[in-house]
Amino acid sequence: MNCLSTMGGEYVCNLSPELIQRAKDELNEDPERRAADIQHIRDWLKKQPHIKARTDDWTILRFLRGCKFSLEKTKQKIDMFYTCKSMCPEWYTNRDPQDKRLRAILEMGGILPLPGASVRGARPVIFRMGVPLDIDYTIDELTRANQDVIDVLFDEDEAIGINGIELIVDMKHMTLGHFAQMTPSYIKKAATVMQEGYPMRPKGLNYINTPAAFDTVFNIFKSFMKEKMKKRIHIHGSDLESLYKEVPKECLPVEYGGTNGTIEEIKDYWIKRVDARRDWLLEDEKYGVDESKRPGKPKTTVDLFGIEGSFRKLNID
How far, rounded to the nearest angstrom, does the alpha carbon of residue 115 sit from its chain's CA centroid? Predict the structure, then answer.
């Protein structure tokens, strides 16, 4: 795993020769042109009155790689990313990992980035949906906690921007109450943020331990997916042998029949990483867009998500 400490300043490439070549072949990255492309985007950001963004080399490079070094697509993606952040305050404010409620959700280990790689070379991440917790929590609180981990992962693992991510969604603990909170509004918003906002390369989407109510929610979610993502879906049910064909046993925790540590150990590692990046997460709240300053017509939640309102009232009693 290639890790970075993003303290600003000039980007220094620590990739292996193999990853450098893959970035050239698949992402159109030219090491000779990289610095000029980063500066081009930085200069463009300075001329955008409505966007308050991180402008360090590494952040800009992540978006360039996510857009295969298309400068215009990179500009659109950065604008969309910060617009999504501002349109979703329930996910991107109050991000303190030491907040009592947020801490309790992090402690349940709902999201587990794993060491190792899937058969496609991508970084596996387990989402454990509906894990029981001593406090009642909303789906927005769960999403906010998960975003803390995801944002730290993407910022620290350089290889993920080249090799991509392999999602494993474990629905073993999902209840009707959990499904009730997964409204079309929430699903549309989540799909938009992850597909349109984040500079990621999703290589596979694996569902395991799917309950009876799964099809109804999944069909809604699928309707918001891009076609290329639909082709990367694998529904394994309770058949872990089927999962192992996509994500080898040696990548998975022992609770999933693997040899890659325990859920508790992996969870503790990521809580330590999120704690170590607390200042970065708190600072991140100040970045976003001011629609009153956007050239042309301001964007609304209807423009982004197709639904009125800011989605702050999705809680179901």
Answer: 16
